[in-house]
Amino acid sequence: MRNAVPDAPRRAAANTHGIPATAAPGAAYAGTVPLPPLVEPVAALSDAERARTARHASLRGLGETGQRRLAAAHVAVIGAGGLGSPVILALSAAGVGTLTVIDDDVVDASNLQRQVLHRHADVGADKVASAVRAAAGLSPETTVIAVRERLTADNAQRLLAGADIVVDGSDSFATRGLVAAATEALGVPLVWGVLQEFHAQVTVFWSAPPEGVPAVRLSDLHPPDAVGEPPSCAVVGVLGALCLQVGGLMAIETIKLIAGLGEPLLGRVVVIDALSGTQREVPLAAADAAPVTAAPMAAAAPPEIAELTAGEMLAAQEAGATLLDVREPWETESGIVAGSVVIPLGDFLDDPGLLDEHRDDDGPVVVICAHGIRARTAAEVLQTRGIDASILTGGLARWQRA
Q: Which residues form the Rhodanese domain (predicted)?
């Protein structure tokens, strides 16, 4: 699959432990509590299914009851490609009772590097046919509903109706927006992941979670007016093995939600950098949610971050300010502001001192990203280190539109 995230999660933490900068160590934020199971269990498993899934029965918290919940569950998977492939394999092997697989594409030879659901013999055949074959070979009691149809605004709710949970492995943000809108209307959770090149993100959205749990939607991570269409994997590539890691995480989140197991990623985004071998999380809250504060004493308000126009930024650079670009490599390949220092946000948060190597003095810093969200996070970190930091208002996207 394709599509790296065009901007980093809203309210990203300034550390590597997923704790918001305004939260005390150990403080909770949205999503870090177990949720009740999504489905009621079937009455009993067949002897064959009980034997096939025996290792699940040994898992504390899942056990035989959790396995019966999996058997009762209906999961809709959007896409049978790079992300959908490991999701379909993992969920069918796990014993999910019904999988609706939606994909209107056929297998191409170039898919085989990362879409492990398919075989050389499948080239030219419908991708959903591979899902039927593979699931039957792993879990004879799993029913696969193959839907060879492109998901649109007109059919999305119809195709997803009846599913307990939706897993989005689609390959464009246009489709992801349609899936998100449909799941919000239906009130079902959405397991979501994106990847490109060597980078990926995984999270859970839910517009109608259990009482007391804040809703988190796709628009909280990517405001509709700020999302572009990143270059395809045909242009910049994708590490095939990373699809397995991301798809595996998405399948795990699905199983956790079905069985009421552990702490789902509702309110958290897992960020993966395969090249550095790092996997960290950042908190994600609704756009209108109040910031998390430490208890019993509220943390000090974050410093004000000045916002500069493009002209003001260039004037500041001329006067000696350092420009820090915190976008990802796939974004900066298309160009950077001349003279700027490029340090992806994740690397910067891991070690803010990386910038020191590129500054000749203690002058101000102007931080740049695509839309301004990541830049603000980095600027707040710089402010805490006593550095005069500002951001390019609206990011490069607004500058380019202007």
A: 317-401
